Amino acid sequence: MKRKILPDTLIGERLSLRPISPADITAVLVYSSDPDVTTYLPWHPTVDAMVVRMFLQQQQDRRRKGTSFGYAVTERASGEMIGAIDLMGLQSGHPGNCELGYVFRRASWGLGYATEAGALLLDAAFQNPGILVVDAYADADNIGSQRVMEKIGMQKVNSELRIVKGRERIYFHYAIARTQHAACPVLGVAL
Ligand SMILES: CC(C)(COP(=O)(O)OP(=O)(O)OC[C@H]1O[C@@H](n2cnc3c(N)ncnc32)[C@H](O)[C@@H]1OP(=O)(O)O)[C@@H](O)C(=O)NCCC(=O)NCCS
What we know:
Aminopeptidase, 191 residues, single chain
């Protein structure tokens, strides 16, 4: 059987990750509509269910093509979806590189969840010998996100100027190579 690029399910201490889908629309609208959540994201807050459904459909299509792996992050204790995390840009112009991104609902910030989900996904990514480097980018003012990247072992590589939502912003580029990665305790993986 052909090996999957990434597993469908990842289970950590407090969180589990599974493929995100259009069925997650209600939970996604909770954070996609929150201006606090989108402050440092490249999109404006939206309550438009059609836009969100299209995005989720796109995520599903990209997973099928093997170019992007979007996961719903669920709190195991409550069973609630609290955010999303993805690995994007596989098979892009830089073979072996891909990009990590994440977003969590406001009510679940500050509990170490982004760190746990990020560590789980990085660990799964580096189980695949084809993935050599994982990149991530954060607005220079997004201290929380930079801290998450540092806590999961990524290092700042450089900075770049971007135009985001019509404004000039400095973005920090973080990266981790498979040779720098130390495995984290994944409790379960299902292909
Ligand atoms: C950034 C974000 C993912 C952090 O998620 P989280 O689950 O709160 O992060 P964690 O609880 O794992 O925190 C990791 C570290 O960051 C720190 N941190 C988190 N938010 C912070 C903030 N706003 N300011 C300063 N430090 C912060 C935590 O204290 C912790 O560090 P510590 O262990 O040294 O105390 C979350 O705030 C979010 O979803 N923001 C909106 C979307 C976003 O910005 N995504 C990233 C785009 S690059």
